[in-house]
Amino acid sequence: MKTILIIEDDIVFSRTISNWLVKQGMKTQCVTTITDARRAIAGRAFSLILADMRLPDDNSLSLLEWMREKRCMVPVIIMTNYGEVENAVRAIKLGAADYLRKPVQPDILLELIIGIKEGDSGKTSFYRGESAKAQEMYRQIELIACADISVLLRGASGTGKEHVAHEIHERSHRRNKPYVPVDCGTVPEDLAASEFFGHLKGAFTGAESDKAGLFRTADGGTLFLDEIGNLSYRTQVILLRALQEKRYRPLGDTREYPFDIRLVAATNENLEKAIAEGRFREDLFHRLNEFTIRLPLLAECREDILPLADFFLEEANAELGKRAEGFDREARSRLEAYQWPGNIREMKNTVRCAVLLTPDGKRVAAGSLAFSVREADGTGAARMLALNDAQKEKECIMRALEQTGSNRKEAAKLLGISRSTLYEKLRKYGLQ
Ligand SMILES: Nc1ncnc2c1ncn2[C@@H]1O[C@H](COP(=O)(O)OP(=O)(O)OP(=O)(O)O)[C@@H](O)[C@H]1O
């Protein structure tokens, strides 16, 4: 079902259009200002936005600019008055899908809406924080994105380092070139040279064909080295040599090749400590760390908690084919009060699970939120809650298996956990 956001300060006209769209089988939400529109877009997935050109607090051109900045791809149809053609042209240049002259003819509007592909459902894949700490982080991203210096992203697990790495790439002049992420923890030491620099056929036993390494694949673009603290010492040495000499040599090749790569690295480890303990090379650290961006904990971004929960609820609804209608009051205050030690990842998984447990058309209740950690006070009540959470987790897993016809790979994906974690939990709950 298509969900349409109507941004119109003429209440009568807005209701008329809304009622008519509902009769055509669509869902609508009406707002009267650009400020409310931004809030609605950040928290919910819309199929289409129908916006009046002039609103009391701003005009729709600024909304289009904001959407472009957020990479929000929801198609927008602008409604203009007679004599506003120039603005309509600007709107199209800013990415509006089309414009309609007022008074709007319902059949023409319907034709336009039907013409929009379901795939354009327009959900932004990322929420952009509005809290002071998140804003500061985005300001830094903006600052360094085009500077082509190497960036080290530091932050606890689940704070969104991979998201920021991608954002830096997208905002840089390399955006049309490859973005290549690599989890350094998965690069085996004896294959590291071949992984990074590639090899020629026959370079070693088992090299049955030529292979391009990550340096070649990422050439011209961005190489994202995730979990950099997991690189073995030997791998650090070969990487450092290539970075210093600005050239690399594939295994079995006699030639060396220059490369043009922007490096973004991430870690949740204390690298200074690793250096002091001789586990991480200081010279490599400096090469990778021409600029540091620290990602805030979710607990430090209190204003983002509820909008982010709404965002994940809509995402889960869309992906799981569910219709949870927001959170009830107690659920909202529990979401706000919780410390979120697992940060954004934990929030995403908690909300996803709660949506699975919530009957369609109902609000998510506090009881469906299975937080991973309790503010342990050692009392029986705390232990009871922990027990409830285990029951909720079990129920969640059973629902996910039901939903996917017992396909464990799909169920793990739905739950936002790895397959091995799912197997572990199946064993724990005797669900095998
Ligand atoms: N701004 C955001 N909007 C929506 N989802 C987000 C956002 N930031 C992170 N996520 C989601 O949260 C999860 C964790 O993010 P990510 O993998 O980037 O964290 P991380 O800091 O790299 O974690 P780790 O250090 O454990 O690898 C992912 O599922 C990601 O899609």
TrEMBL record:
InterPro entries: AAA+_ATPase, AAA_lid_NorR, CheY-like_superfamily, Homeodomain-like_sf, HTH_Fis, P-loop_NTPase, Sig_transdc_resp-reg_receiver, Sigma_54_int
Protein origin, superkingdom: Bacteria
Keywords: ATP-binding, Nucleotide-binding, Phosphoprotein, Transcription, Transcription regulation
Protein name according to UniProt: Sigma-54 dependent transcriptional regulator
4-aspartylphosphate, modified sites: 52
PANTHER family: TRANSCRIPTIONAL REGULATORY PROTEIN, TRANSCRIPTIONAL REGULATORY PROTEIN RTCR
UniProt domain Sigma-54 factor interaction: residue ranges: 127-356
Response regulatory domain location: 3-117
